[in-house]
Amino acid sequence: xxxxxxxxxxxxxxxxxxxxxxxxxxxxxxxxxxxxxxxxxxxxxxxxxxxxxxxxxxxxxxxxxxxxxxxxxxxxxxxxxxxxxxxxxxxxxxxxxxxxxxxxxxxxxxxxxxxxxxxxxxxxxxxxxxxxxxxxxxxxxxxxxxxxxxxxxxxxxxxxxxxxxxxxxxxxxxxxxxxxxxxxxxxxxxxxxxxxxxxxxxxxxxxxxxxxxxxxxxxxxxxxxxxxxxxxxxxxxxxxxxxxxxxxxxxxxxxxxxxxxxxxxxxxxxxxx
Length: 273
Description:
Elements: H1 2-11, H2 17-36, H3 45-69, H4 74-81, H5 83-91, H6 96-113, H7 121-146, H8 150-164, H9 179-204, H10 209-215, H11 218-231, H12 237-253
Helix pairs in contact: 1-9, 2-3, 2-8, 2-9, 3-7, 3-8, 4-6, 4-7, 5-6, 5-7, 5-10, 6-12, 7-8, 7-9, 11-12
């Protein structure tokens, strides 16, 4: 995921952020369709409508995130975007322990992100739009996962999103004239979409959407650990304290029995993939 983000930022100089996000969607759709080859039933009726809605919401989330990233510091965008999962987790909470865990996680992410609201109101609007779309991704992703055809629906959804958002292809600019840049764009789709979103589907089959929303707090923590281990980026005291707060919140939230968040019945079934 982080390797894909680094490649995407490098492509911003050759196309618009929205155009790079569309190319990421196209790359993911091509790879998923070649891999899964969804049956005809996946392209019909309610199953198709759910997959298409999920794909479009996810693609919009990525477009908004890239547009925010072009205007605001990464830490600010991460902190603002995380409002989406926090809201989903809060709505799924039932006890004081849950709410305490959410407070720890939210405070930890803000500390890690080193929030600085600089760069313009439009960047904040895009970041909040990404947060709303992220919440939609979790809710719709759970429905897709428990439908029993999650990865096939990913393929169908991203194909639909590629078509719906095709006007954004105008922002891909000079990338079409360079096989190398096109290959990098497809690589972003594989690294930042195919691999993590397939794994999300497998996780959502086992846990409820509220717990999954809290688990997403591992993303900024993982980024910090990776930066320290591979890039010798020593975290500041607020970042270190934020990491500990997130871990504590995840441990506290993860102690539930799995019944309050809806992970029962088919949710617990082993995936077919």
